[in-house]
Amino acid sequence: MSELVFAPKRFESERLYERLGVRLFQYYVPTGGRLVMRLAGLKWMGFRDNDLLLPQLDFITRYFEAIHWLALPALAALAFHLYSAGRLSPTLLALALLAILGFTVHPIMLQRYNRIRLRRAQGAAWARRQRRQASTTS
């Protein structure tokens, strides 16, 4: 099931997500993931120089995407509950829903964008390993 949900779809590409503004969002909220990981007691790992950690990064992107998918309906339900209880005006409900979309949809797109880039990095790492193996066996 997780591959069905989390695997990049045919229409998804780095270019699509860049056009949708994920890099702009990432620029303005560059440490959001690190802050959340620190608050959750998780260590931030250096992935740049270690190809063996790429599968762990894949897991982390799936984990954070799942959290945002779960938060989307929960926060929307809370906003509608507050509206129905008379604690939010229609204008505040609309603003709350826009904020909820901003705090859930963009991070979801960012995790999907990162996973597409990760797959490219994994392919490059695999090719490097194959070249090293070929040079040591010949």
From TrEMBL:
Instruction: Quote the subcellular location field of this record.
Output: Cell membrane
Presence of keyword Acyltransferase? yes
MF GO annotations: acyltransferase activity
Provide this UniProt record's keywords sorted from A to Z: Acyltransferase, Cell membrane, Membrane, Signal, Transferase, Transmembrane, Transmembrane helix
Q: How does it sit in the membrane?
A: Single-pass membrane protein
Pathway terms, separated by semicolons: Carotenoid biosynthesis; staphyloxanthin biosynthesis; staphyloxanthin from farnesyl diphosphate: step 5/5
User: Membrane-spanning residues where?
Assistant: 66-86, 92-110
Reply yes or no: does the keyword Acyltransferase apply: yes
Q: Tell me any Pfam family this protein matches.
A: CrtO
| Domain of life of the source | Bacteria
Q: Which GO terms describe its cellular component?
A: plasma membrane
What this protein is reported to do is described as: Catalyzes the acylation of glycosyl-4,4'-diaponeurosporenoate, i.e. the esterification of glucose at the C6'' position with the carboxyl group of the C(15) fatty acid 12-methyltetradecanoic acid, to yield staphyloxanthin. This is the last step in the biosynthesis of this orange pigment, present in most staphylococci strains.
Name the protein family: Belongs to the acyltransferase CrtO family.
Q: What is this protein called?
A: Glycosyl-4,4'-diaponeurosporenoate acyltransferase
